[in-house]
Input
Amino acid sequence: MSHVIEMLNIRKEFPGIVANDDVTLQVKQGEIHAILGENGAGKSTLMSILFGLYHADKGKILVKGKEVSINSPNDANDLGIGMVHQHFQLVHNFTVTENIILGKEGRFFLDRRTASKHIKDLSERYGLNIDPDMKIEDITIGMQQRVEILKMLYRDAEILIFDEPTAVLTPQEIIDLMQIMRNLVDEGKSVILITHKLNEIKDVADRCTIIRRGKLIGVVDVKTTTQAEMASMMVGRPVNFTVDKKPAQPGRVILELYDLEVMNNKKMLGVKGINLSVKSGEIVGIAGVDGNGQTELVEAITGLRAVQGGTIVLDGNDITHASVRKRNEIGLGHIPEDRQKRGLVMESSLFNNIAIKEFYHPPFSKRGILDAGYLEQYAQDVITQFDVRSGEGIYSLAGKLSGGNQQKLIVGREVVSDPELLIAVQPTRGLDVGAIEYIHSQLVAHRDKGHAVLLISFELDEIFNLSDRIAVMYSGEIIDIVKPEETDEGAVGLMMAGVKEKDGIR
Amino acid sequence: MSDIENKELKSNAFLVAISAVLLGLLAGAVLMATIGSNPFTGFWYLFRGGLMNIERIGNTLATATNLMLVGLSVAFAFKTGLFNIGASGQMLVGGLCATIVAHNVFLPRPLYLAVLILSGLLGGAIWGVIPGFLKAKFNVHEVVATIMMNWIAYWSVYYFVPAYLKGPSLETESASIAISQTLRSPWLTKIFKGSYMNLGFFVAIASVIIIKFILDKTTLGFELKAVGSNRECAEYAGIKVNKNVILSMMIAGGLAGLAGLSFYTGYSRNMQIGVLPSQGFDGIAVALLGASNPLGVFFSSLFFGVLQSGKGFMNAMTKVPPEIADTIIAVIIYFTATSVMFKRIWEALFKKVSRGKKDKRAKAAAELQSSKEVE
Output
């Protein structure tokens, strides 16, 4: 088999950091080649160079044995390289067809019908199952991703790059995507899969290039390498996959929900009368497929969404209609689902971000005047304690941090203020094993200090690893509350689909 | 070592502004040349017109005063993510309130000045807080609301001035305010040899300092900036977004009101009807060139002040029409708006320079090495 892509001895420097240092990547024709590395290891930089977004300082790129210079995504497209970005680039009120032909409309008149037919053929050939006439806003995230794939196929891409493709998908959608990748390879395409999820690599990839801190660590044959071996190559030390934790010692009730009802964005009940209590010293996990009322539930507890009915009691205080700040003062910490949208001010410095909930009271400020010295000292302590790595320390902009460091920053900010209740929503979404391990240990440590933790996650592994009790949410209701040691992922998975164990299978 | 190099590598708002100004002047030169005038004499008279003697410097500063306050108003709102396009209306209302006070309130000078300044501030603040409230409560876009408020102010003045403040001779403007009731001050007039220079300049300087202090040092500024740069995150952190929107528009309006005060009771001494002051829009340019930074606004308003007050002299002394000065301003704004381009150019340039340095250093090291080997 010949190499379809070769990136030889690539070096790329950014101010203060070497993102790629003598990295070589060789992808064979017709294989699924995974690139594994922690956040900030330089995977994305390498792919951005291949896709023409950055220019390498050193090294060369060969496509099908010929040296090429790629200066823009258009060059990359012309060479048959296509990329599915982590954040989709779709126009929401356009149809699938319109999105796909965008930029390739042809001559003056749009020929939607021919394009639509072509897209349908492609969709069938690769098993994508997409209706070309649907509007983007009406289809699921998983389908939107398949539209992105179709977009590349429509442009005759031979080499498809997937950048963390499963970060946004549900378990079933992940299985579907893996099958699609296999179909692509069967049809003669080559796939580069950027990820830090080992099970996915094990599942679908042929070979894997491992990068750590900008350097090439090795290329392994996936079949003959264990997950643990790959993980330790990636992180540079043996990795613990299960969370070490002692049995929970639940104490008094911290959070209590009575018949809670919350509207969703469609002005319908998204949370339909939930009763739940979380005690100090325990982690309660909410399992469920995305979109079953978890967002509404969290926003109601944190004060970001009005409550329709019922009561929320936090540490003995009725906070049903309290302001966000009041809740924070009583003792609420919140690791939000979307760290870039909710959690951080991207164009602001780390020390401002760390102080964003506390700035208004002493010792952060006195009589409305900020104490810059204290702010900086406090931020310095947080980033040291939580190992937040950045180019310019506390003066770096939050947006310049890697995803893992952004999340550590948020976790640090929330944990340091020692809240009675910590709500963690998808706390490890898009993070690598090293960061996941760290954040899990922080959540357990918070529990062991005698605080309550409410964990919302779409990943069953995470729920099972961390929770002392699991509440399964389906269609705005809590179907059942179970203990992880008394059940298994299969049973919970069924409940997540709305089937109660007692009911048996319908 | 790497620290210094990092610093060298950065472009900043100052460099962008300077580049835009130079290119704007260059464009002005080209325009002058194409209409057959000598650009050097054109610029000579333009800048002489603004700076040639103490009286003209006074006029330049008085012009800059208005621009500074309006620029500050626009910049402040912008920090909270709001586009205050209603500075003209806020100026009119601030000026109207100040004019009413000037005609009717007679108090010892220091007390009187305090009341006068407060009236301008309040008038503008009320005109700013209404769009702020509409935005917070009903999500009415502030651009629409402030434009409407401009016209409400315009027609209110149109009605109010002839009805209550009419001058002895003309229907279209208010009676002139007695000099002792304006912001002009005998000692200032003396220093600046009878120019329009007035105490408004010090109000503007104080405003620059206060606004800079609020934005950089206070919890209020922290909240406003958080709301401006990420509303969702501010909300999540427990900051009341709506309160800050209202507050920001109120303060922005107040600043524009002060501009009205300095313009109608300092720079001039009466209000004409049927005029929407163009300073309200020039302020957007000032804020843009000043990168919404109070200090930036200070310098850019001085620069625009020179152009504005020098253009008449240029026209009188050469054949260059005064519109050239406006064109220069317009071109500068275009270049400021494309600041990303300058940022890229400067960064590419810096990179080349630092790379060249590195090469030289490497070369020197290699030479040292080889000379050692020879030894």
Summary: Residues 58-318 of chain B form a domain with the ABC transporter involved in vitamin B12 uptake, BtuC fold (CATH 1.10.3470). Chain B touches chain A at residues 2, 5-6, 9, 217-220, 222-223, 225-226, 229-230, 232-240 (CB under 8 Å). The first helix of chain B runs from residue 2 to 9. Confidence is low (pLDDT under 50) at residues 1-10 of chain B.
